[in-house]
Write a structure and sequence with these properties.
Elements: H1 5-11, H2 16-32, E1 37-43, H3 48-56, E2 88-95, E3 105-107, H4 121-130, E4 135-136, E5 148-150, H5 157-165
Antiparallel strand pairs: 1-2, 2-3, 2-5, 4-5
Helix pairs in contact: 2-4
Length: 177
């Protein structure tokens, strides 16, 4: 079983309460995706400062360092994303589109079936999260966030922010839940 080091590193910075489960799900994904694509955890824990920088894109930070116009990346202000508490993961498929063994193309679609098993590779990944009780951003009513899954343990982001602000955190800064 080939495990993606980048994904493993990103699992290790998740909230301690979800790390083992995220690793188990990831290993299940690796077993299921047998074609020319693999799943990478693109984003997991994100600090409040990192969230602020993302939120600024397309709002107060309009251009990148090369002068390219930036679009809005997130609707979540710092503290209002489950990523800020290490309880969310954004996935991406990395594909060998040419079949030459060069896995370099990020694929953000939900329909491609790289392993030709009759099921969308993306949705196979999401199903493995959902069976473990993770919420998928593709099921949200107000807006869709297809790469996003989160494990809330029944908390709202407002409740997590309140706990964080009250310093109800462990030695590593994770909210105690």
């Amino acid at each position: 079983m080939n495990l993606d080091k980048i994904t493993l590193d990103r699992i290790n910075i998740l909230h301690p309460k979800v790390r083992d489960e995220a690793l188990t799900i990831y290993k299940d994904i690796v077993k299921v995706l047998t074609g020319r694509a693999f799943c990478r955890f693109a984003y997991t824990h994100r600090s409040f400062a990192e969230q602020a920088a993302l939120y600024a894109q397309g709002r107060t930070k309009l251009y990148d360092s090369n002068g390219r116009k930036l679009g809005i990346v997130t609707k979540a202000k710092p503290g209002s994303s489950f990523h800020n508490y290490g309880l969310a993961i954004d996935i991406v498929l990395i594909a060998d589109k040419d079949g030459n063994g060069s896995y370099e193309s990020a694929v953000w679609d939900t329909v491609t079936d790289f392993d030709c098993d009759g099921k969308s590779d993306w949705m196979e990944c999401i199903a493995l999260f959902k069976v473990k009780g993770w919420d998928w951003g593709g099921d949200w009513k107000s807006f869709k966030d297809l790469p996003h899954v989160e494990k809330t343990f029944g908390y709202t982001w407002q409740e997590l922010l309140d706990l964080y602000n009250k310093k109800y955190v462990d030695k590593d800064g994770f909210v105690k839940i």
